[in-house]
Amino acid sequence: xxxxxxxxxxxxxxxxxxxxxxxxxxxxxxxxxxxxxxxxxxxxxxxxxxxxxxxxxxxxxxxxxxxxxxxxxxxxxxxxxxxxxxxxxxxxxxxxxxxxxxxxxxxxxxxxxxxxxxxxxxxxxxxxxxxxxxxxxxxxxxxxxxxxxxxxxxxxxxxxxxxxxxxxxxxxxxxxxxxxxxxxxxxxxxxxxxxxxxxxxxxxxxxxxxxxxxxxxxxxxxxxxxxxxxxxxxxxxxxxxxxxxxxxxxxxxx
Length: 254
Fold this sequence. Notes:
Radius of gyration: 16 Å
Helix content: 25-40%
Distance between the termini: 11 Å
Shape: globular
Number of strands: 9
Structural class: alpha/beta
Order of helices and strands: EHEHEHEHEHEHEHHEHE
């Protein structure tokens, strides 16, 4: 359970490519003392010619890896037709930025996750205001599931040096306006592995309740978003640098 008492790290490959790949990452995540393993089985890609994910086969790999290493499995749902399928395999589901305003999907997720008491990580749309994001989250809560975890993932601005502009100011604003935990997807916001660790330190310091970080055994050969993925060794460095910050602000990194 993600709460505002800890800093929960959700990490794993952007896309599940094979059982061996997700097992290797799960092992690394487990050895760092973390509790959540994420991986994409259905991938929303800008180009229809890019890798689209392994679908149910990927869900099976993710579920096996999570069980093997005692982790909670997290993945994204993109379509109303896939909600029940995904819920058979994972412990937490994610709604990505492209679907923040897909209200029929949000209603169905709210209904089906309420029955199973499954938390929902809900990402901010890339061009959405905080108010629009919070209102959209209420499609899930009013459908029956109050267990929403808000996820800041960067917004689109005129800046091009990073993939998106990470709005860390959203963290204290959301904490003032909402009772839901807020986590930060550092990887998608920054888009380059060099920036992940420093911005993770910043997100922890500003009071985020969690981080979402992409990890791949060999980022140069990743089928999706390799430039923003950390190696397991870099992930270990991140944990070692962020953990002392958590202690200063009275949180525990989990």
